[in-house]
Design goal:
Blueprint: H1 3-14, H2 22-25, H3 29-44, H4 53-65, E1 67-70, E2 73-77, H5 79-98, H6 114-132, H7 136-155, H8 159-162, H9 186-195, H10 204-215, H11 220-226, H12 232-250
Antiparallel strand pairs: 1-2
Helix pairs in contact: 1-3, 1-5, 1-6, 3-4, 4-5, 6-7, 7-9, 7-10, 7-12, 9-10, 10-12
């Protein structure tokens, strides 16, 4: 099931004023029917094996009957009916997305913790959708959070190995404790991972530039002081670096060496 596609459909539905009155909707019906046509095309792209497709397809077929098209232009539309169908479509997609993602369909199948795996799947999808909708800052911040969670998960597989005094760049913190004083920063996680051979050293500079530093953009004043790069290129580089780290950690079987 393509959850990214479902997320995208929700984004387009959010652009249609479906919660307004008929009078409020009327001035927007030309642009709204164009959006509905876009949504219809997206629904039609689902494979026959996708579970939500029959229900979504039925809604869009019903929506099509409420619009009269001539010459590629919608000439008439049943506004109340169309609003009602889009609300049902929105509810059906939200219910589908709320269900936990099966481990076999997860983008992080090697992570055993169901809650963590579901959170990472959600954030990864959100990061990709943010990139597609040109929400560069959101994409960058989400990528940083995912990298932090992946490194934490890896190091907690065998805490005794991680906290061994022989480890290089070991922070004076206990990674097994959840209080704020013992929380490792993303910079500490990256340095520890690089110095102990978990991540290739040549990637450290890229991780700092692409993931760690831009992630501070979540703090508005840091963004002002850093005058960092927040654009399409930075977002795409963040996604690419995240994919690399994900792939490296995924290839490791079991706890740290």
């Amino acid at each position: 099931m393509d959850r990214r596609q479902l997320e995208n459909i929700l984004k387009y539905i959010s652009l249609v004023p479906i919660d307004g009155t008929t009078d409020e909707m009327t001035p927007h019906w030309h642009s709204s029917t164009g959006l509905v046509a876009k949504i219809q095309n997206m629904v039609s792209e689902f494979d026959e094996s996708d579970l939500p497709r029959p229900q979504l397809k039925a809604y869009m077929e019903a929506a099509e009957k409420l619009m009269t098209w001539r010459g590629g232009i919608c000439r008439d539309v049943n506004i109340p009916g169309l609003m009602g169908i889009l609300k049902k479509l929105k509810t059906a997609i939200e219910e589908t997305l709320r269900a936990p993602i099966p481990q076999t369909e997860s983008m992080f199948p090697y992570i055993k913790d169901d809650l963590l795996r579901d959170m990472l799947d959600r954030d990864f999808m959100d990061a990709r959708v943010a990139n597609e909708f040109q929400q560069w800052k959101a994409c960058i911040v989400l990528c940083g959070g995912i990298v932090e969670a992946l490194l934490y998960e890896y190091l907690l597989r065998d805490p005794r190995w991680t906290m061994d005094a022989a480890r290089k760049s070991l922070p004076k913190k206990d990674i097994t404790k959840t209080d704020l004083a013992n929380q490792w920063s993303l910079a500490e996680l990256i340095k520890f991972a690089v110095d102990n051979g978990i991540i290739k050293k040549y990637k450290q500079a890229s991780l700092d530039d692409v993931i760690r530093t831009p992630r501070n953009l979540i703090h508005p004043m840091k963004e002002v002081r850093q005058a960092g790069r927040v654009d399409q290129g930075a977002a795409r580089m963040s996604l690419a670096m995240l994919e690399e780290i994900k792939s490296e950690l995924e290839s490791v079987k079991g706890p740290p060496p």
